[in-house]
Amino acid sequence: MRSDGTSLYTTRDLAAAIDRMDKYNFDKMIYVTDKGQKKHFQQVFQMLQIMGYDWAERCQHVPFGVVQGMKTRRGDVTFLEDVLNEIRLRMLQNMASVKTTKELENPQETAERVGLAALIIQDFRGLLLSDYQFSWDRVFQSRGDTGVFLQYTHARLHSLEETFGCGYLNDFNTACLQEPQSVSILQHLLRFDEVLYRSSQDLQPRHIVSYLLTLSHLAAVAHKTLHIKSSPPEVAGARLHLFKAVRCVLANGMKLLGITPVCKM
């Protein structure tokens, strides 16, 4: 304790770790903080072991880098509330300027979800430990490897199901999926569990991000060539099931990253 009766940062973390073990009997405890805390957590874990807590080996620190160049309208010091407000505002402006934007029941909510996806994907694309230069313009690009592109792909595939779902989502024949675009997507879908396992092992979300972006690019190419409307019913049904599988995996992957998929934008 300090002379004024307050506790030290280190003693609070020691007490908190012991309390969490008592409460939750955890298999693993992961601390996610900036890389400046690395030495602090090394010391905390060593102290716990010296105190006789063998479970300290199950504590892990996952450090992240510094975001450089993030400024909002209020100045250089950036608060999360300001960032979220800025995201919503900029995304609403972007949506209003794009002719293909659909009429939405709640444009504010959609703008926030798409904007957060943009922010999260930019943050998770590289190694967590790496510093990176923030760019508002790059964040909101609708093409390329961005969160906006992921949301757009999900909304587009959802629209396909809404348009053709009633007629084609019953029985289907997978033998109809012979085109190279279909095979590429199927092969990529099969890798989803492998990618999740890899991310769970090194605690790096970038593997999931990379996988989802590749899946979205494959779906964009297939959407142009694998037509549903003008195809025989058996072929159309198989293709629609393929696109539905892409959308489901895309949605699950986005949710794992803390992104809520949108159905219209």
How would you characterize this protein structure?
It is a single chain. By secondary structure, the chain is mainly alpha-helical. The chain folds into 2 domains: 9-64; 68-257, Isoleucyl-tRNA Synthetase, Domain 1. Helices cover 59% and strands 6% of the residues. It is built from 10 helices and 4 strands; from the N terminus they run αβαββααβαααααα. The protein has a two-stranded parallel sheet. It is elongated, with a radius of gyration of 23 Å.
Task: Output the keywords.
single chain; 265 residues; mainly alpha; Isoleucyl-tRNA Synthetase, Domain 1; 2 domains; two-stranded parallel ribbon; two-stranded parallel sheet; 10 helices; 6% strand; elongated
Helix content: 55-70%
Low-confidence stretches: none
CATH topology of the largest domain: Isoleucyl-tRNA Synthetase, Domain 1
Secondary structure tally, helices? 10
Report how far apart the termini are: 54 Å
Helix/sheet category: mainly alpha
Strand order of the largest sheet: 1-2
Along the chain, the helix and strand elements come as HEHEEHHEHHHHHH
- Write out the CATH superfamily name of the largest domain: Isoleucyl-tRNA Synthetase, Domain 1
Radius of gyration: 23 Å
Strand tally? 4
The largest sheet, given as strand count, sense and whether it forms a barrel, is: 2 strands, parallel
* Gross morphology: elongated
* CATH structural class of the largest domain: Mainly Alpha
Task: Give the amount of beta strand, in percent.
Answer: 5-15%
* The CATH architecture of the largest domain: Orthogonal Bundle
**Count of distinct structural domains:** 2
Overall mean confidence score, pLDDT: 89
Assembly type of the chains comes to: single chain
Protein name: Probable arginine--tRNA ligase, mitochondrial
EC number: 6.1.1.19
InterPro entries: Arg-tRNA-ligase, ArgRS_core, DALR_anticod-bd, Rossmann-like_a/b/a_fold, tRNAsynth_Ia_anticodon-bd
Enzyme class: ligase
